[in-house]
Design goal:
The complex is a heterodimer of chains A (about 375) and B (about 100). Chain A is mainly beta and about 375 residues long. Chain A has one domain: Methylamine Dehydrogenase, Chain H (7 Propeller). Helix content of chain A is about 0%, strand content about 40%. Chain A is built from no helices and 30 strands. Chain A has strands at about 5-10, 15-20, 25-30, 35-45, 50-55, 60-65, 75, 90, 95-100, 105-110, 120-125, 125-130, 140, 160-165, 175-180, 180-185, 195, 215-220, 230-235, 235-240, 250, 260-265, 270-275, 290-295, 305, 325, 335, 340-345, 355, 360-370. In chain A, the strands form eight sheets. Chain A has a four-stranded antiparallel sheet with strand order 3-2-1-30, with no helix packed on it. Chain A has a four-stranded antiparallel sheet with strand order 4-5-6-7, with no helix packed on it. Chain A has a four-stranded antiparallel sheet with strand order 10-11-12-13, with no helix packed on it. Chain A starts with a strand and ends with a strand. Chain B has a single domain, classed as Ubiquitin-like (UB roll) (Roll), CATH 3.10.20.30. Chain B is built from three helices and five strands. In chain B, a hairpin with a 2-residue loop joins strand 3 (about 60-65) and strand 4 (about 70). The N and C termini of chain B lie far apart (about 40 Å). Classes of the chains: A mainly beta (about 375), B alpha+beta (about 100). Chains A and B meet through strand 6 of A and helix 1 of B.
């Protein structure tokens, strides 16, 4: 019988939530690393018992934890993320040069075939890789030293690299997204990078169609259609069908096109999910109603999914890394809120249940489907 | 060599699996840096959590106290007070007060 394991990072620790494939009864284990912010927990597709967790506080900086038994026990591994060479500067909020300074790991992306290899997206924005199970980390410096790097500016959350997509169809092709620099693509395993923001438009920029400065919140890809990418931007939901060369807006009839996460159905590359948020300062759902929106046509036409979600007086947010899907036949969708709830749907979003209700604010949600 | 007593914040004790106050063997007449070097050598998991990797600069939310005195801003090659090297007082690593 298959199992589902939900990996939840929160402001005060990590939780591992398990169920069988019926997805009715859930067991919550944790908190792990209690009192620390856990930015992200990710499992290796090649060995689901191998997990990586990013543990962090302002006091003590970055710790990386590794589990080899599916989250029952953990051990710290390497936590030194040294920029390669002279780090130089990026732009600060006021436009002045600001030294590149490592703060924390926002996202781990384990290699699909090698459990010892894992990528880390960090703040200040850079991409690192470990090939020894997290013991040591090496920067793929071609990204940070891109010709535009000195012009990158942080969003309110910091200059964070939060999205890493490894193209399963084309070895060496990697996408990353950085707030608020934009999106980038490498076709040579991270040696060199090109800007992947053609067609994006951000009204807050002096030049709304500038190459750099778009606050990309999240990008997803379905492995069966790797040329197609979906993006939730600061404002706008966008789509690219040419591997990020050009984008077009597919916000359509959403009540707000601001939001953070975006997810794609495990079995249908045209079915995508977002959680509209009222505005860039009012970080809660419009009208106090927590609604996931689903498009079955790859955007533009959206339907509200509300069954089981609070429809009055709800003022939580759903952060960029806090939505994920399982790969059971009836695809499960999961998301966590800043109010400490984790919601799950076992029927592609038609109905929802809270599988955890009183956790610390949720920073990230990942899901493993274990056969 | 001599032994000094080191007190760490609770989250670092948890991380390094240390219970209570730590007796730590250090060179005679140890400096701040020598105590921290010895601590990190014995507990590598603490590297980067008190001082930054590379620069060895004290993290912003951390202070060092010895014999009731704040020695955070003294040069790191400053010898620790006699009260600490004799074992009658403790070298404290303290985090800024706040629960976050």
């Amino acid at each position: 019988m298959a199992k589902v394991r939900v990996l939840v990072g929160t402001r005060k620790g990590a939780f591992v939530i398990n169920s069988d494939d019926a997805r009715r009864d859930w067991q919550i284990d944790g908190p792990f690393f209690a009192g620390w912010e856990v930015m992200h927990v990710a499992g290796s597709p090649a060995n689901p018992d191998r997990l990586y967790a990013s543990q962090w506080t302002d006091w003590h900086g970055q710790v990386v934890q590794r589990s080899d038994d599916g989250g029952r026990s953990w051990n710290p591994v390497g936590n030194e993320f040294a920029y390669q060479g002279e780090a130089g500067t990026h732009q600060w909020y006021d436009g002045t040069p600001h030294p590149w300074d490592f703060k924390r790991v926002w996202h781990f992306e384990p290699d699909p075939s090698d459990p010892e290899t894992v990528y880390a997206g960090v703040e200040d924005a850079a991409l690192f890789r470990s090939t020894d199970g997290g013991a040591t980390w090496q920067e793929l410096a071609g990204l940070r030293t891109h010709a535009t790097g000195q012009t990158w500016q942080p969003g309110a959350g910091g200059l964070c690299l939060h999205t890493i997509i490894l193209d399963p169809s084309q070895p060496g092709r990697i996408y990353v997204a950085i707030s608020a620099a934009g999106a980038f693509r490498s076709d040579d395993g991270g040696e060199s990078w090109k800007v992947a923001t053609g067609g994006l438009r951000s009204e807050f920029l002096p030049d709304p169609e500038a190459q750099i400065g778009h606050c990309v919140h999240r990008i997803v890809m379905h492995p069966s259609r790797p040329e197609t990418l979906f993006m939730q931007k600061h404002w706008d939901v966008c789509r690219s069908d040419d591997a990020g060369e050009t984008w077009r807006e597919v916000s359509g009839n959403l009540p707000s096109d601001f939001g953070f996460p975006i997810a794609v159905h495990a079995h249908d590359p045209d079915t995508i999910y977002v959680v509209p948020i009222k505005s860039d300062s009012e970080h809660y759902p419009p009208d106090g109603k927590l609604r996931v929106y689903r498009s079955r046509g790859g955007g533009t036409e959206w339907e509200a999914l509300t069954n089981g979600l609070p429809q009055e007086n709800c003022y939580v947010n759903v952060l960029r890394d806090a939505m994920a899907v399982d790969s059971l036949d009836s695809c499960g969708i999961y998301f966590g809120t800043t109010g400490g709830q984790v919601y799950a749907s076992a029927d592609s979003g038609d109905s929802w249940q809270a599988i955890a209700e009183h956790l610390p604010p949720v920073l990230s949600v990942e899901v493993q489907t274990i056969e | 060599m001599t032994t000094v007593r080191v007190a760490l914040p609770v989250h670092l004790r948890t991380l390094a699996r240390i219970e209570g106050e730590l007796p730590l063997e250090v060179p005679d007449r140890p400096t701040i840096q020598e105590v921290l070097d010895a601590l990190e050598a014995r507990y590598p998991v603490l590297r980067g959590t008190i001082r930054d990797h590379g620069t060895a600069k004290r993290r912003a939310f951390i202070r060092y106290f010895a014999a009731g005195r704040d020695i955070s801003h003294e040069p790191t090659d400053t010898p620790l007070p006699e009260a600490v090297t004799s074992g009658s007082d403790v070298f404290q690593v303290i985090g800024a007060i706040s629960g976050g």
